Write the structure tokens for this entry.
Amino acid sequence: MPKRTPSKPEPPDPSPAPEILQFKFWLLGISPMIWRRVQVPASLTLRELHGVFQVVMGWEGIHLFQFTLRAKRFGSLELAAQSPDVPLSELRFRKGARFRYEYDLNGPWEHEVRLESRHEADQGTMYPICLGGDGSCPPEDCGGVPGFLDQRQACITLETSHDFAVLADFADKLALKRSTGASIDAEEIDQIREALECLEVRQGWVGKPFSRKEVNERLSKTEYLDLMHQQW
């Protein structure tokens, strides 16, 4: 009888790609909307998601936090909430599910979070990743939403317009003096310095501008793993 050639074992199926969750979150009580969109592995914990939100929004991780979902609270130990060290995959979010994320509960800064989609990870993409966003992150310890809105409104007051007028007037005088060879006196320089200092202070009131490139650079360096524990 002819010898039977043993069949080759079939190679095992390749491991399935990790599941990715896409969230959009935004600050409540502020218009125009300050929002961000992120994609994260479903293996991340709520604590790690907190760190991601801190980096992506622009917070500094110096206050307590909590998530509220399905009538349960997960967050900082000091809040007597449940541990946030639970993987997102175990929470079994459905598409469209919403929950609340709060940061600095003395403020507080309340974020609405919505699960937009879930899909397999794309090869060559590093996660977590920020897909987009808009609006400057408010400064820390500025008095919550009311304080931030007051500061933002102050940036368009008559005083701010006056400081810009001082700079414009100085530019005209500088051009004239250069054409005539005249020098700039110390009093004019002091006025310009004071106007610039005032504008710089007011610029800080409107918060840190959003930069997707900068955010993704920080995520690639896993800064979120530091911020998820950084409270004092």
